[in-house]
Write a structure and sequence with these properties.
alpha+beta, six-stranded antiparallel beta sheet, two-stranded antiparallel sheet, 10 strands
Amino acid sequence: MMNHSLKSQCKVNPGTIIEGKWHQNRYTIVKELGNGANGIVYLARAANQKQVAIKMSDNSMSITSEVNVLKSFAKVQGSTLGPSLLDVDDWVRRTGKISFYVMEYIEGPDLLSYIQKKGQEWTNVLILQLLSDLDQLHQNGWVFGDLKPENLIVSGPPPQIRCIDVGGTTIKGRAIKEYTEFFDRGYWGLGSRKAEPSYDLFAVAMIMINTIYPKRFKKTSGGILQLKEMIRQKSELRKLDGVLLNALQGNYNSAGQMRTDMLNTLKHVPRQTQQAPSATRKTNSTKSRAQHTKRKKKSNTIETLVIAAIIVTLYTIYIFGQLLP
């Protein structure tokens, strides 16, 4: 949690007008959206009445770091993981200078709420999206760090997973700045808190587990044995146990590798379930052609019709004989 002096500095009431020192843009505070270790996020209205999100902090270095992350996101073509950066400035008030940045306001339910409402089948779709964006983020030299369902919003339509807090995002190779125990591999004794892709991928696996255990669970023995047991108890997780265990044990070098493995695993079951309908359609198609042939023959002469009927009857008896056990 943030310290009391920071919270006091950044605490403002709805209706307060924030005016930037350098750009002179004005924003009217609507309500607080949340607070963390490095500041408070507010919903606000810009001069054009568009809703935006503002993060304020008396720690200018923290603001600069998060702004750099959002700028990095913007350079990744096709990536929509984080919000768009709209403005960066300082607000001067009697109690001192408050640094802030303005970003796109992403509206929608958090990941767990969305899945509980729409159905568990959406988990894999959204996780595959997340892995694609993480792969781009990692290639640009960043690790997300504090990855958890509370920081993931599903916007749309079409459904799209987005992040609303980049405060824990860390340059590769450094120590993770922020983390939440349940999603932290260090807490489970399964790795360090060094910022590397495998740190995020551990969190992705724990997010998938969290969708099945929405109230989470406490660490008892800890380590991979406890997590293996929790996976084993749920059929939804057992289907992807290979992917989950590889991510939990740091066996993936990249988010792209985990995504490919997950896709290959998911493809295995659908192919089996599609065989029977395909065979049925083929059988039905064969029967339709035979019936069409019979109808066509009936338009011929009586003699042809009788001969054809005999042939069809014998053929039918033969086919049914082949089909019967």
